[in-house]
Each structure stands twice: as structure tokens, then as C-alpha cells.
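Notebook entry, structure prediction.
Reason for the run: the old model in the group folder had no record of what sequence produced it. Starting over properly, with the input documented here first.
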Amino acid sequence: LKNYIKQIFFTVISSFVILELILFLSGQYLLWQRRARESQPPGIRIVCVGDSHTFGVGTSMQYSYPLQLERLLNLNNYNQRFSVINLGIPGASSRRQAQELKSSFNSNDAKIVILLTGRNNDLEIKQWGNTSLSNKITYCVGNLRSLKFLKEIFFHKIRKNTQQNSNDIFAYQKEYVDYLNSYLERIRKLCRDKGANLVLLSYYKSSYTAIN
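New structure, fully documented this time:
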């Protein structure tokens, strides 16, 4: 029985490690493709920053909104070339999006930045400002690609603590707003420093009061 349990444990752990490696390498390949495209002559350069909604999860890459936007701009403007760069990363928090935009600005400037942000922040809000070891471990485990991937496949989003009183909800909303405003200000500053116009998008029928 012990050997059987050990085999199961080893199989499960190995599967998680392999899945994590596959997802990591896939992500790196997509980022490599993106950076190769960024190095091309841009014309008027527009950068779209966001999460899976921007990346185009649920459809093929050719139908992501940034690529459709680029096609429409170039179709309707004969004398000017547009290049729309997709910086969307599935599951990316506002912090990760700010980092990605800064990295992009280090390589190229942009005339316009289109930002869709606010989701995927729950885990970071709980960790934000808390430097305890247990909290850091929880944060690192929660950010494993394999766990996020399996969660998306097998589980619907469950709203916990639905019986929270109004004071608890207000406190969480305040944390959410403080976190979001902190990274929005970083992104605004990045755009101001680079002379880029910032356009904020909203999620379709979003129920996130703090984001709205």
C-alpha cells in the first residue's frame, strides 16, 4: 500500500511539473513571437495591455481585438501605417501588466496605450503589503501556471464568503481600489514620460464595482 501511495504521489507531482514546464515554455514562445514582431517598423504604434480578454483567449490569435483593430486601421487609412502590439497575458494582474508595459517601452515607444485591467488581482490584493513568509508561499503557489490552468478547466469561479457583512465588503473594496489606483498611476506615469496617450477600456457587463 505504501509503495502504491508513493507511485501515485510521484505521478501527480511529475504531472504537475511537466504541465508547469509546458505552460512556461509555451508562454515564452508566445512572448518571443511578440518581441520579434515589436522589432518591425511600426508606423503609428499602438500598444494594447491587458489579460486574457486582450490576448484573445477563446478564439484564434487572428481574431484578438488588437489584431482586428490593426486590420481596420490600415484598411481605412491609406496614407498612414499602423502597428498594434498585443501585450495581453492570460491571468495577468495589474502589477504584471505595468511591468510588461515598462518592458515594452524600454524597447520601443508607442503613440497610444490601450489598457484593460482590474481582474486577476484578488490573490495579489491579499498579499499586497503583507510580507510574512506564509503569505509569500501562498502567493507563489497560487501563481503556479498549472494550478491556474486546471482551475480554469475544472472549476467555475466560486464567490467565497457571500455572507460577509457590509463592513467587510467595504474594506475589501477599499483594498481593491487602493491596489488598482496604485498600478494605474504607475501606468499613467509611464505613458506621460513616453508621451503616449492612455485609453482605458472597461470589461463588458462587469460586476466588479471597484473596477468600474
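Summary: Strands lie at 44-50, 82-88, 112-115, 197-200.
The old model has been moved to the deprecated folder.
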